[in-house]
Structure formats: C-alpha cells, structure tokens
Amino acid sequence: MMPFEEQYYIIHADVSLPGVVILMPDDTTAKRPYVSTELVSGKPLRFLNAFADEQDAAKILEQLRGVVFDGSSFAVREPIKEKLAVYDVAGMQYYRMTYLERSGVLHTDYWYAYFFEPRAFLDPNRSTFLIEADEDDEDDEAEVLKFAFDADAMQQEPEEARLMFKLTGVANSYIFVHERIVPLLGPDTAGGFRAFRASAFVEGMQHG
Asked: What is the pLDDT of residue 187?
C-alpha cells in the first residue's frame, strides 16, 4: 500500500497571488467558538479581508477565489462545497458564512469548513520536530518540521472519514486533504491555494 504521506496534501493559502483574500472574522463572529466547537444552526459566520488596509494602501484590488483561507481553516464557494459534502468526513463541519468586500459588496455563496475534532494521526517517532511538546503540560503543542502519519491509527478509520483532517497536539497543524479531494478544490491558481504533498513538505516551504 502507498504510504499515507504520499496520499495526502497540505493545502495552504497562496499569499503571492495579487489581491489574495485572507479571512478575518468580524467582531461578532470573533466571539463565537467556531474554530473548536460544532455549531448548531444559526446566523452565518461573517468575515472581512485581513489584508484590506495593506491592499488599499497599495491600490490593489482584492481577488476573491473559490477557496479562501484564514489562520485556522478555509472556506469554499457553494459549487465546491456541494462536491465535498457528499463525503462523510469525521470531525468537520460546513457552516454558512458571508464575506464583505471592502467595497461593500456582500458575498453569501461561501461555506466555512472547519475541524472541531482534530485527529490523532501524527507518528511522533517518525516525525521531525522544531519544538517538542512539554509532556508535563497537556495543553502544550508541538511544532513539526516534517510530518509522518501513524499508519495503524489511520487504518482504523474508513478512508472517507479521514479524507480531510487537522492533527491534534500540533501548533502548526495544517489542513491535510486526500489526493481525491485536491482536484475538487479546483486548479491551484484559480482556487487561491498551494498543495504540498505531505511526504515532501518541510515547514517553511509554504512561504517560498
């Protein structure tokens, strides 16, 4: 069987794209526990562009793409969400959101995808660490230089349930997506993201 690190990609915002949008919650959404808790039906999450002031100063028009990131997860337009939602991925949820351009245009066709239940799929013996977690502090998180997965833990889960996930206990836990999912997000440049195969990824290369 192909190693799991060969089957998964890390997806990351491509901040080199002109006018890239990085999501920032408005004051109301910032008070909601949308990152770590499964939300019940309610008002949409509301986001702005974290790069708005910088782009205004440089007279750069924001370019809203099919996949948009914040510091924790990502959002997708409705057509992409419909493709992804056919899979029953464990520990994640799609939640309605709005995005307000700095021009005042309101977008209501996005869904925020977030992971309220990170998975224990990291193999600490084969991974390489920048900073190891303090074993005496249960809330301390490691910073990983190169990721390796626990094959036994992953094999216990049906593939569909782990098509997308984040890792528990890891400060730089990126979004890992199975190779089946990447094409559904659209071409990298159109989608606004970069995809790094997990087996080749080393912390820091997403900024290169």
From this structure: 67
Beta-carbon contacts of 84 under 8 Å, excluding residues fewer than 6 positions away, are 76, 94, 113, 164, 181, 184
Q: Is the separation of the CB atoms in 80 and 66 below 8 Å?
A: yes
Residue 190 pLDDT grade (very low, low, confident, very high; cuts 50, 70, 90): low
Cβ atoms of 5 and 149 closer than 8 Å: yes
Give the position of tokens 């995005």.
Answer: 99
For residue 26, what are its two tokens?
Answer: 């408005």
- Exposed, middle or buried by CB within 10 Å (0-12, 13-18, 19+), for 90? middle
Return the sign of the alpha-carbon dihedral for residues 74, 39, 32, 45. positive
Helix, coil or strand: residue 115: strand
Domain ranges of the chain: 4-207
